[in-house]
Amino acid sequence: MDTSAILADIGAHWHVYLTMPFIAAMIGYVTKRVAIEMMFRPLEFTGIKPFLGWQGVIPANSRRMATTAVDLLTRNLVDPQEIFARLDPEEMLKELETPLLKAVEDVTREVMETYQPRLWEMLPSRAQRLLVDQVRAQAPDVVKRLLREVSTNIDDVLDVNDMLIGAMVRDKSLTCRLIREVAAPEFKFIARSGIYFGFVIGLVQFVAWALTKEPLIMPIFGFVTGFVTDWLALKMIFYPREPRGFGFFRWQGMFQKRRQEVAADYGALIADEVLTVRNVMEAVLTGPRADRLFALITREVQRTIDAQASIAKPLVALTMGGKQYQEMKRAAAEKAIAYLPETVKHVESYATGALDVRNTIVEKMRQLTPIEFEGILRPAFKQDEWKLIAVGAVIGGLVGELQVLLLLH
Description:
Blueprint: H1 3-12, H2 14-40, E1 46-48, E2 52-54, H3 57-60, H4 62-77, H5 80-84, H6 89-115, H7 117-122, H8 125-152, H9 154-157, H10 160-170, H11 172-182, H12 184-212, H13 217-238, E3 244-246, E4 249-251, H14 254-257, H15 259-274, H16 277-286, H17 290-308, H18 313-320, H19 322-344, H20 348-355, H21 357-365, H22 370-374, H23 379-382, H24 385-408
């Protein structure tokens, strides 16, 4: 086809040619938006397993994502021993004083009424009060000793990795939010870049169609538009890690460039949603190492009972029987443990401020190397990014085929 014929065809069908770069830009944008949403939605598998269906890339791999994120946290950002050493037993005791003494009094009365009901009833109220006060007087020292032992040996009672991974796997939306909110500007860039890259490819498509009129041009360029724009946008988020100059143009991967902002957002999310005092308390009380904490509490409670009964112990043991005395000590320990969840809630506010998780993470993140910093978000893309690129390419090809049908018919 000679030049005059090409120009005549463009003039006759100028509206068709004019739409090509704009449709390519639309393909670029739509494929990016679809790819981004497919990363996060749906949270649960939708369709017919194993033949047809989809689950968001991140929810489908929530355990792997969580394990990677937690590995980064515990290896580079948070040292549990260092963090929990910030808790001052004296300050915690001040916060716990009122609920602690109330719990001690309740436990003492309940145990005595269960195991020595007659003796307890026979005691004058003043004697009952004296006994309760003696136990209450010992409680602060016992709790202080416990707190000191726990804070200096936190790994004995808390599996931080298990706690964090468990929280993120149970709540898939939390894992999605951790990535989506931290990388919100990057996702906007990916979507917008589809418009610009798509428009440029559309101009090339314009020329190729004018020269060849080949029906395969449209789906091929649609496929290329979806593939190249997805691939290029993902690369531009992370690379180059350091600022690079290209003539007058300088570029650095967006994620690396936003280092300060990302650190602040990531620190806030981890402190407010993941490594919270409430989650820590729940893990300590119900996690795989909870039995070690309960063993510590049981030991201290039984030691306190023995100390209080040291003078009258032979008489108590004779009255109750040695076996019943041991049962009473076990019951007292169990009741003390039962009161624990409600009691420790009162220390939540102090502990949140003392642990200072947010500022710790922000400060440590600013000290990461570019490669370590990239590891915060990169795992969300790296293993499954080919799926997102493939989806973009397929959608682009289908839209290109639709263009052919419109042009020819």
